[in-house]
């Protein structure tokens, strides 16, 4: 069978007289045979009638190139000539024969330089050329650049080796492969589990080390878009393969150390500023007016604040101490698990002294339990120290011996937190809080700021401590639901009061992405870890929930009539 590989087109002007048409083309059988054998397509422009003495018609011809394209064309030409071999053929078909001869010569001269190429192409299977290129040159260059700059993909030879060495009837039967990773640089093996998932995963890790050494990391994750759970219980699992240099975070660079140092210095300054602001009843009037009056434009002489720096240092030390204790909890929990952490990047804030710090994982977390433990260790350590300062400060505030160290703050500040306001009301009493100002020890301010900062960091969103804990305890799907609820409450100002907007912007810019999966991202954590995370989220909501005026009046938290 002939193969359509190329077509050549030409337009032939034939001058036909009415007698020629009436006599020789009256036989429709010959006309059909001529059209079939010569593979010519007729396109008549203008009618052809016997009554017309002479008429012009354009015939668009194309020849089909196959394995015997030249012979086929010659046979077609010969057949056309034979059809006109009657007594009058010599004169009547001279124009047609001349046109076909001219077409053949033109086609031969055009295809002379490509005869070899067509001869080689004619033996190939049929191919259909697209109307236009699928991608333009710019897109192709972009794809090549992305491949060069993107992460290195898994070697196909290693994929075949890993399938032969790792998977099988006794471990995991692979039925399908899909891209894995942020940019599809890895391979995700889907199939059927042949045993206990933890035992199978341990065997696969051992075989992977024997087959490829320290070249790849193997992840056990939930099968995406799984329609049914695993028959043995729990979700269906799949295994993802990534290169070690792609999956593991890079080391801390020199510039990151420099940035961390600068942020720490700024956080120290914001903590000292908080200590100075806590002495608002002692500051010069022009300084107080500048910081409290929104219409004040001209800044006061900052040298007036120097005498208050020494008295502000204890509060600054308390805020920085809570921050240091928080980060120390993370490192103490990560060290036994052999999980590396980055240097903390402190976030300064003039209202609380600090918004906490960003601490990144510098190695892959082995399992979800480890993720929960490390995530909770920092907030629990920081909250323990903060609550200790807060409680001791409240006790000192009601002690006449420490009256000289007390500072005056507006009672409305205690309406910023339902939980902390109730605790303050229980220790200081109704009369103390139901006034325009309250005398408290600086430790109360340090503890309050530390608990508020810890609560903000325990919100279940992104890669905050709370987001990591929820992701490890309940899975990534639960984190999505918690995150949407948290963003909604922050946007409405329900949580955090006036700090909800700056904190929400900070999270969206720096902490919105969830943490990457663990090596074993399937095995669930124990019940007590889930209970600890749930209790922590509940306390966070009570800490960040402000007290509205009606409830504050009933509870005796602040003097509402003064507002």
TrEMBL record:
<feature type="transmembrane region" description="Helical">
    <location>
        <begin position="440"/>
        <end position="459"/>
    </location>
</feature>
<feature type="compositionally biased region" description="Basic and acidic residues">
    <location>
        <begin position="72"/>
        <end position="81"/>
    </location>
</feature>
<dbReference type="InterPro" id="IPR044838">
    <property type="entry name" value="EGY1-like"/>
</dbReference>
<keyword id="KW-0378">Hydrolase</keyword>
<dbReference type="GO" id="GO:0031969">
    <property type="term" value="C:chloroplast membrane"/>
</dbReference>
<feature type="region of interest" description="Disordered">
    <location>
        <begin position="104"/>
        <end position="128"/>
    </location>
</feature>
<keyword id="KW-0812">Transmembrane</keyword>
<keyword id="KW-1133">Transmembrane helix</keyword>
<dbReference type="GO" id="GO:0008237">
    <property type="term" value="F:metallopeptidase activity"/>
</dbReference>
<feature type="transmembrane region" description="Helical">
    <location>
        <begin position="530"/>
        <end position="548"/>
    </location>
</feature>
<keyword id="KW-0150">Chloroplast</keyword>
<keyword id="KW-0482">Metalloprotease</keyword>
<feature type="transmembrane region" description="Helical">
    <location>
        <begin position="479"/>
        <end position="509"/>
    </location>
</feature>
<keyword id="KW-0809">Transit peptide</keyword>
<protein>
    <recommendedName>
        <fullName>Peptidase M50 domain-containing protein</fullName>
    </recommendedName>
</protein>
<dbReference type="InterPro" id="IPR008915">
    <property type="entry name" value="Peptidase_M50"/>
</dbReference>
<feature type="region of interest" description="Disordered">
    <location>
        <begin position="67"/>
        <end position="92"/>
    </location>
</feature>
<feature type="domain" description="Peptidase M50">
    <location>
        <begin position="316"/>
        <end position="475"/>
    </location>
</feature>
<keyword id="KW-0934">Plastid</keyword>
<dbReference type="GO" id="GO:0006508">
    <property type="term" value="P:proteolysis"/>
</dbReference>
<dbReference type="Pfam" id="PF02163">
    <property type="entry name" value="Peptidase_M50"/>
</dbReference>
<feature type="transmembrane region" description="Helical">
    <location>
        <begin position="373"/>
        <end position="392"/>
    </location>
</feature>
<feature type="transmembrane region" description="Helical">
    <location>
        <begin position="312"/>
        <end position="335"/>
    </location>
</feature>
<comment type="similarity">
    <text>Belongs to the peptidase M50B family.</text>
</comment>
<feature type="compositionally biased region" description="Polar residues">
    <location>
        <begin position="117"/>
        <end position="126"/>
    </location>
</feature>
<feature type="transmembrane region" description="Helical">
    <location>
        <begin position="412"/>
        <end position="433"/>
    </location>
</feature>
<keyword id="KW-0472">Membrane</keyword>
<keyword id="KW-0645">Protease</keyword>
């Amino acid at each position: 069978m002939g193969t359509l590989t190329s077509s050549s087109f030409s337009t032939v002007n034939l001058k036909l007289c009415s007698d020629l048409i009436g006599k020789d083309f009256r036989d429709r059988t010959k006309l059909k045979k001529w059209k079939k054998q010569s593979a010519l397509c007729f396109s008549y422009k203008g009618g052809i009638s016997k009554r017309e003495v002479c008429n012009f018609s354009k015939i668009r011809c194309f020849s089909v190139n196959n394995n015997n394209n030249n012979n086929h064309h010659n046979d077609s030409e010969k057949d056309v000539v034979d059809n006109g071999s009657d007594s009058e053929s010599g004169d009547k078909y001279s124009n047609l024969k001349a046109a076909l001869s001219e077409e053949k010569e033109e086609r031969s001269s055009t295809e002379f330089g490509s005869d070899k190429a067509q001869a080689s192409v004619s033996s190939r299977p049929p191919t259909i050329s697209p109307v236009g290129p699928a991608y333009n040159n710019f897109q192709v260059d972009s794809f090549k650049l992305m491949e060069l700059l993107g992460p290195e993909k898994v070697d196909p030879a290693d994929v075949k080796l890993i399938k032969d060495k790792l998977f099988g009837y006794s471990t995991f039967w692979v039925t399908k492969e899909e891209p894995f990773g942020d940019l599809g640089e890895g391979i995700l093996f889907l199939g059927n589990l042949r045993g206990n998932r933890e035992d199978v995963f341990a065997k696969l890790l051992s075989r992977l080390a024997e087959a490829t050494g320290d070249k790849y990391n193997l992840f056990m994750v939930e099968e995406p878009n799984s329609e049914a759970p695993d028959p043995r219980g729990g979700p269906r699992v799949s295994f993802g393969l990534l290169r070690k240099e792609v999956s593991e975070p890079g080391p801390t660079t020199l510039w990151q150390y420099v940035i961390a140092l600068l942020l720490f210095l700024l956080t120290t300054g914001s903590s000292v500023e908080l200590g100075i602001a806590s002495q608002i009843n002692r500051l010069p009037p022009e300084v107080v007016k500048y910081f409290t009056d929104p219409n004040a434009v001209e800044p006061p002489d900052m040298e007036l604040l120097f005498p208050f720096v020494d008295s502000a240092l204890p509060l600054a030390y308390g805020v920085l101490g809570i921050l240091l204790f928080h980060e120390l909890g993370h490192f103490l929990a990560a060290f036994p698990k052999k999980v590396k952490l980055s240097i903390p990047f402190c976030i300064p804030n003039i209202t609380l002294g600090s918004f906490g710090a960003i601490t990144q994982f510098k190695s892959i977390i082995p399992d979800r339990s480890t993720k929960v433990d490390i995530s909770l260790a920092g907030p629990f350590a920081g909250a323990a120290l903060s609550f200790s300062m807060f409680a001791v400060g409240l006790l000192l505030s009601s002690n006449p011996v420490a009256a000289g160290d007390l500072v005056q703050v507006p009672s409305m500040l205690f309406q910023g937190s339902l939980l902390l306001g109730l605790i303050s009301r229980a220790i200081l009493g109704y009369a103390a809080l139901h006034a325009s100002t309250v005398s408290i020890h600086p430790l109360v301010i340090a503890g309050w700021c530390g608990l508020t900062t810890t609560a903000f960091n325990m919100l279940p969103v992104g890669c905050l401590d709370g987001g990591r804990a929820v992701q490890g305890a309940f899975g990534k799907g639960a984190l999505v639901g918690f995150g949407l609820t948290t963003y909604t409450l922050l946007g409405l100002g329900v949580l955090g009061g006036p700090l909800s907007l700056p904190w929400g912007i900070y999270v969206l810019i720096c902490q919105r992405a969830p943490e990457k999966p663990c090596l074993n991202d399937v095995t669930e954590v124990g019940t007590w870890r889930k209970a600890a995370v749930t209790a922590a989220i509940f306390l966070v909501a009570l800490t960040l929930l402000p007290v509205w005026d009606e409830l504050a009046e009933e509870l005796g938290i602040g003097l509402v009539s003064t507002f």
